[in-house]
Amino acid sequence: MKFIHAGDLHLGNPFTGLTQVPAWLKGTLQQATETALQRLVDDAIAEMVDFVLLPGDLFDTTTPDTRAQLTLRQAFETLQSAGIPVYLGFGNHDFVANWQNLPTWPENVTVFPAETTTVTLVTKAQERVAITGFSYTQRHINDNRARLYPVKQADVDYHIGLYHGALGEDGQGDYAPFTVSDMQVKHYDYWALGHIHVRQTLQDKPFIGYSGSIQGLNKNESGPKGYYLVTSEQGELIPTFTPVAPVIWQTARVRLASDAPTAIQRIRQTLQNDDDFQLVELSVTSEDSALLSLIVNNQLLAQLTAASTPTDNFFVYNIKLVAANEEVSLPAVDQQYWAQTADDVFNYDMLQQLGLKQVQDSAVLQAFLTPAMLAELKQAVIEKLRLTEMGVATDED
Ligand SMILES: [Mn+2]
């Protein structure tokens, strides 16, 4: 027996955390989740899998646009023409508030209802398989739903649990909180989990775990992303990670010691690769004061973006300055004094010094003053002080 376990497709997701994307890259990013799904469908047919399991968050929202719906429908139709059934439950992102509003899917698709439900199928090799699952009908489920799952049926070869949720105590989480032991006592052969976007194994054998999102949606979902191809080996169901994400969030480090044109050439050579497209956050180490100044003022990033071309298979969305020794020390500033006055430092004057002087509208400026932004600014100030210590001029004018 062979099947696919793919959590969190998030069709229709707009990539977040990218501010300056060149026009040539927009299409690639917009299509990334769709491309990942198409690759999964191609693989399913090439591998002649017995079925596909989708444990929730197929759509990014509960009101997916026509394009996202059409993408999923076409994927299901392609699988149907290859004789591959699909079993799915909706999650917290695409919960079903009104079942009448759901598109009609091809006949090969089984949608688990709100109630915990078990279906059975017979594979090409005549193995009997039971699959138990449910769908979200609201954004949050505070109850433990795993406890409602039946124990393994006596009349099947394999019993699989489809579950969208997160570990937690009953009544204390928003995503059908469960414990591993709640699942262990059911004696299933495999638990296909959805919700957590990073691959995570809660138990090796029998497998209980998350396959993660099939396409990284932001910088926190870095590295190759894909699905689990699960095969039966001597009665056990063994998952194998299979990458399909066409766009990979990545971090890279580079040491630079030259003028900007040479540095840009060096960065571009370093990041050129034969793999899938990479969105890169670049950590730079440098002792060159002119170059450091360009980085702090975001000019190197602007020049790098300008040098990017549609044939590139990478894009640098951020450049971070990293001290050569990893530690950012502040020899000129007393640490205690810094801690006491840090909050006072974040005023409009400091924001202006940090390059926000173009922002005249106070409402826009207020929008920047989020805790995350302040933390970032604090880091920028530390860098600025360090550079001042090194004798680097950071002001543009
Ligand atoms: Mn999700």
Automatic annotation (TrEMBL):
Which GO molecular function terms does the record list? hydrolase activity
Tell me the CDD domains matching this sequence: MPP_Mre11_N
Q: Which domain of life is it from?
A: Bacteria
Pfam families for this protein: Metallophos
Keyword tags? Hydrolase
- Membrane-spanning residues where? none
Q: What is the name of this protein?
A: YhaO protein
Q: Which gene encodes it?
A: yhaO
